[in-house]
């Protein structure tokens, strides 16, 4: 079995560029680093370093091994944290994964609710779009986006709860020629430069792109990024237009307006997958109940035709 510590040291050597520099970074002696690398070479049966002048150079095998070890070491680090928590008797955590607008609009009340019930609880919140969650705890609550007309997704070991179905809206600069319209068709946006807030093609981005294609065009992007707040600022400066869920435009910058978009009218479904855990069932149920309450309060019913958004 490979030694995770030696894999971590290999990555440190490659990152530092030399055994001596890695030894300084890790507070080891160069001899200790060399011994670990020799042992790892024996464990793997690979040539990890070759002589080059007065020094050594990593082989392609060493680089490939280090790359492949990254996710394993992240998972191992997560396991070590779990063991440390269990050993100290402080294993009180609630792990939540969600998309950015849910983290901003819903999660603060969830954290306050569950910590009121368990004051020593640590709530860990991470984004599941676009990253895959490696290196974190297995989520207790996994909040996701689905196409409203798509198949329901169910995860093993989790109970699915529907939180909201919300409409997508067009977002434009306040001085845009189309800003005075009460609603816009997707085709009205065909000739406009777009600001894409989902460069990694997460579920919401796929929903928007599918709607554009249904209207007969593919957006022409002036900018692409993975932050809806930054995207709103780009729209405000006149870089382009975009389409977002209502939850993401609950608070708009002053120079931006949101309008209903039709033909097609597009909705997304927001669901939470709650982990089935008998020991912490009450805590998870409290969190789900608060999510339901927040979803009812925060998802706006309609966009104001005269103000700067919902």
UniProtKB/TrEMBL annotation:
Cross-referenced PROSITE patterns: HTH_LYSR
Domain HTH lysR-type: 2-59
Highest taxon in the source lineage: Bacteria
InterPro entries: LysR_HTH_N, LysR_subst-bd, WH-like_DNA-bd_sf, WH_DNA-bd_sf
This protein's UniProt keywords: DNA-binding, Transcription, Transcription regulation
GO cellular component entries: protein-DNA complex
GO molecular function: DNA binding; DNA-binding transcription factor activity
Family assignment from sequence similarity: Belongs to the LysR transcriptional regulatory family.
Protein name: Molybdate transport repressor ModE-like protein
Provenance organism: Streptosporangium sandarakinum
């Amino acid at each position: 079995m490979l030694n995770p510590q030696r894999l971590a040291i290999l990555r440190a050597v490659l990152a530092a560029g030399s055994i001596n520099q890695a030894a300084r970074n890790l507070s080891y002696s160069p001899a200790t680093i060399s011994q670990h690398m020799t042992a790892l070479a024996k464990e793997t049966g690979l040539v990890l370093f070759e002589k080059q002048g007065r020094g050594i150079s990593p082989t392609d095998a060493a680089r490939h091994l280090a790359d492949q070890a990254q996710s394993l070491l992240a998972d191992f680090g997560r396991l070590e944290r779990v063991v440390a928590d269990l050993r100290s008797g402080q294993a009180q955590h609630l792990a939540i994964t969600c998309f950015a607008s849910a983290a901003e609009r819903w999660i603060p009340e969830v954290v306050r609710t569950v910590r009121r019930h368990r004051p020593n609880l640590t709530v860990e919140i991470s984004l599941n779009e676009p990253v895959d969650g490696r290196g974190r705890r297995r989520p207790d609550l996994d909040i996701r986006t689905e196409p409203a007309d798509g198949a329901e997704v169910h995860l093993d070991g989790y109970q699915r709860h529907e939180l909201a179905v919300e409409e997508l809206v067009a977002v434009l600069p306040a001085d845009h020629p189309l800003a005075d319209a009460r609603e816009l068709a997707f085709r009205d946006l065909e000739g406009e430069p777009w600001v894409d807030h989902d460069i990694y093609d997460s579920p919401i981005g796929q929903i928007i792109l599918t709607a554009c294609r249904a209207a007969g065009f593919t957006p022409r992007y002036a900018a692409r990024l993975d932050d809806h707040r930054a995207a709103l600022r780009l729209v405000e400066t006149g870089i382009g237009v975009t389409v977002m869920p209502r939850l993401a435009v609950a608070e708009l910058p002053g120079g931006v307006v949101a309008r209903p978009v039709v033909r097609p009218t597009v909705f997304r479904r927001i669901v939470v997958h709650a982990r089935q855990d008998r020991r912490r069932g009450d805590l998870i149920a409290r969190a789900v109940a608060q999510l339901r309450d927040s979803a009812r309060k925060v998802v706006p019913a309609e966009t104001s035709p005269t103000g700067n958004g919902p």
